[in-house]
Amino acid sequence: MSLEERARRERLLSNGAGAAAACRACRIGYERRNNVYGEGEPCARLMLIGEGPGETEDLLGRPFVGRAGDLLEKMLGAIGLAREDVYICNTVKCRPTLLDGEKLRNRAPDPAEMANCRPFLDEQIEIVDPSVILALGAPAAKSFLGRDFAITRGRGRWYDGPRGIPLMVTFHPAYVLRQGGTALTETKRQVWSDLKAVRARLDEPSLSEPAQASLFE
Ligand code: URA
Question: What is the pLDDT at residue 205?
């Protein structure tokens, strides 16, 4: 990827981040501390899409920087990727919350919030144009595959994602963190299998770096 192309994508993403930060289409746009647009390599071959920012993400304005983010980095490391190699974002850019007594808790984004935020996500996909999308958890998967999508049956398979980009679904790292005992072992085994499929797909010659000869055309 040329330096010019990289700079062009960075510029477009920065414009998108500005537009998302100015958006107040939902109530959560007024409630959040920071807009969490997304971050990472603008020319990434792998894009990770989670559900929505949690408390730490809202505080720092960055996706996946809490406990789930730590696990996500380990998952990426297991297939030879660093956080900086991929592009990470969410279906919604503001933290969805509910008041539970005195405490603000995270909740899943509702369909209207996801629909309002979708143009920002679609634009990110268009700009980064990844070779593979990995949806993390059921809400992210449902936003692409429909509300009947069942993660226990549907994860670990390839789907035709947005713009025809191959899409894989795996469990959300926060879900993995909630497991214990044999459920934890089994969930980790499934996530590892999904990650290996992503690695294999990225390593396919047609998706890998351009053939040497084309460098000189
Ligand atoms: N969970 C998500 O889905 N996204 C984040 O950015 C953090 C936690």
Answer: 87
